[in-house]
Give the backbone structure.
Amino acid sequence: MSALLSVAEVHIAYGKVEAVRGVSLEVGTNEIVTIIGANGAGKTTLLNAVMGILPLQGRTVFASEDMATLDIEDRVAAGLSLVPEHRELFATMNVEDNLQLGAFRIPKATAANSFERVYSLFPRLKERRKQLAGTLSGGEQQMLAMGRALMGAPKLLMLDEPSLGLAPIIVADIFRTIGELRAAGVSVLLVEQNAQAALQIADRAYVMELGEFVLSGAARDIASNQRVAASYLGFQHEGGSAV
Amino acid sequence: MNTTILLFLLQDGITNGAIYALLGLALVLVFAVTRVILIPQGEFVTYGALSYAMLATGQVPGTAKLAVAMGLVAFGLDLFSARKSLHSRLVARAVAVDIVFPLAVCLLTYALAGPKTPIAVNIALALLIVAAIGLFLYRIAFQPIAHTSVLVLLIASVGCHLALQGLGLVFFGAEGLRGPALSSVALTAGSLRFTGQSLAVYGLAIAFIVALWLFFGYSLTGKALRATAVNRLGARLVGIRTTLSGQIAFLLASLIGAISGILIVPITTLYYDTGFLIGLKGFIAAIIGGLVSYPLTAVAAILVGVVEAFSSFYASNFKEVIVFTLILPVLVLRSLAAPAVEEEKD
């Protein structure tokens, strides 16, 4: 079976500086894949380029469709959705309007179901549905950003640092929800600095350093890899300087 | 001063103010969605008014042909920008919007124009023509530079204003025109006399304000336009085409401008360049509203109208000066309240 998203030999440059160099990755149906790596490794750049926000060189195929000629809006319609690092909510509009706009590209009848699904995933949003998005707490804003993306019933949800700046208890909550998405038939591509949490829920993982993937494999194996443990999980194995 | 004069001036001011309110609302709408300060709003007023006035005399205004010509340019741009991914649906849409629509409007105008055409038909034709021009103006002049700074957009806006004004001189000549009144009804209340025309002005202004409020508050398209204004990237990420939002905003603005023109052309003689000054007064109202607030803009527009009426009575030479001076204290206050406004990056 072919992968839901397949990115092959992708290069992304800001002017002359190449931020992502020859990266290939795949996300299968009903799979949670994570990209971990330090700040500035090029993870966000890669997600933005796959979404069409940045131009890239290389091949991206999503749901058997070549993405090269499609702009952001077409990619959304094809079932690709991004929750960006800065969330990009409609701050002066209320929670319900934000969610309703998330369903902009799907038929009205389906949108009603989406509301139910999102409210059952995030009951907090239902309580705050008349509140302006800009007045929500950080955690609630992240829930709203994810909820808005899910309203459009995407096949693949790309999450950029969902845990950034949130209290640990809320991070746990968000990650539990990401795990639940699999049951709902949504694949997830998760970019995280919080490698420990990401590796716990992911099926497979890629480790990114300076614009390249240096390691990839099952999340379990990556989590037990000494070098990853030392660099990203914050503990040192006996004599494990490098692999 | 006696009360009769006072009441007359107030009535006059409120009638003009209602027109400025409509124009101010259109400016706020366009700025919110596209960040364009729409200087050619005044040209939409003159184009609407004078096209209507010419149609009323049985002639076909040149604006009908301009719409077709602009449609052709827009079609070329649409094809060019989509050259890498030309699929049949896209081409069909471009043909329908850029070629068929303005051509149909133009042919309809030629078919229907005549000395005995009913007023309602003339109004509809004038509105269609100006709506097409507004739509294509965005497509041609602003959509290709939609991502640039407010300043660049403003310069382009000034350019559009000059071009459209020059074309206005070609189409309508240097002579002023007046159009027939929408209705000849007149009501008297005390010493005040309300003509059907001024009642239509109030009615339409209120209807438009309510309609805009409903549109932006409750319809999905309206919310999508607001979302584009609040966060462009966020809007694109939920699949809202920001180019389409811009086109809708311009379409609405040109319609509002044309309606304002048709409302005032039976009251005052309009020249090809009168629209600019009228548009500027709407702009003052929009500035007082901070280019964001619809209700504040509407209230400010009434104030502008009333100040104009009184100053034209007491110091008619300084009428415009006094009106435009209104903007100074507002700008000072606003700059004190918010000393540094950084422009949002896209």
